[in-house]
Amino acid sequence: MGSVIFEKLKSYVFSSNPALGARNISPDGSEFTVAMDDPITVPHGVIDCTIDVIAASIWNVSPNISAAFGNNMFYFSQGGTPYVVTIADGLYSLPQLNSYLGRFFVNNGLQKNQIIFSGDDSTQKSIITFNYVGTQIDFTQANTIRSILGFNSQLVPNGGPSTIQGENYVSDNIATFNRINFFYVTSNLVNSGLPLNGTPGNIIAQIPITATPGSQINYSPQNVISIAARNLIGNSFQSVRMTLVDDQLRPVNTLGEYWSVTLHVHMQYLLSTSNLPILP
């Protein structure tokens, strides 16, 4: 009868939500394990096995400003009075940073638009506008937001407090609000996974950031990348681990939001009336 290859597919959804069975969740929410009631089992008779991540849901909330990054402090003075702002861990854009600082200004008897940050799309630099005379920012202190804004260690204005209402200062370097460019999902289901610069790292998917800060990324690729998983052949996995890392393989702080991955396990079988060489 010759040879016929047929494929069997199994689908799985893994979620970091403990109400759905996630266990051993890391403090930052980046890693979790699931104890399978029905283990992922790939029989010895399978000749090839791959994993496809067909969907993922991840909240775009991983902080770009936090105490852990050493960039959450803002020092300034108005009329000779010094102020210190500790910025809460979070994912900020320029407007969101303005809103956060605006609340501090109002709560401390200053004007909501005391200091405004804006961006120059042409140069990717940030701009500081002092709307009131007598304001000065101190970027020489430790752990300030200067790096994310693109400023070097210095006083702004450097010669003393602002003397002109509406005075502007452009950053020395490009702003770096996009601390993360995309996510990787890794798993113990694969031995090598998608190679990163030729180095195996158990990566099963690369997730682009397609949602604005604070919104949910709903990943559903048009061209699915199949990940070799021949290590599953003849084995049974009851404990599955999933990890969310950034483009530098750093664990991603999910700020308490749950994330999930949907994948297919493809198993290929060979039916044949004769002995044939299969795969090396």
Write structural notes for this entry.
A hairpin with a 4-residue loop joins strand 7 (115-120) and strand 8. It contains two helices and 17 strands. It is 6% helix and 44% strand. With 280 residues, the chain is mainly beta. The chain starts with a strand and ends in an 8-residue tail after the last strand. It has helices at residues 94-107, 146-149, and strands at 3-15, 22-23, 31-42, 46-59, 73-78, 81-86, 115-120, 125-130, 135-138, 155-156, 167-174, 182-187, 203-208, 216-219, 226-228, 235-246, 260-272.
Quick overview:
By secondary structure, this protein is mostly beta strands. 6% of the residues lie in helices and 44% in strands.
Tell me what the CATH architecture of the largest domain is. Answer: Sandwich
Whole-Å distance between the termini? 24 Å
Biggest sheet record: 5 strands, antiparallel
As a percent range, the share of strand residues is: 35-45%
Class of the largest domain in CATH?
Mainly Beta
Number of helices: 2
Q: Into which percent range does the helicity of residues fall?
A: under 10%
Radius of gyration: 26 Å
- Domains (count): 2
CATH fold-level assignment of the largest domain: Jelly Rolls
Round the mean pLDDT to the nearest integer and report it.
92
Task: Identify the overall geometry.
Answer: elongated
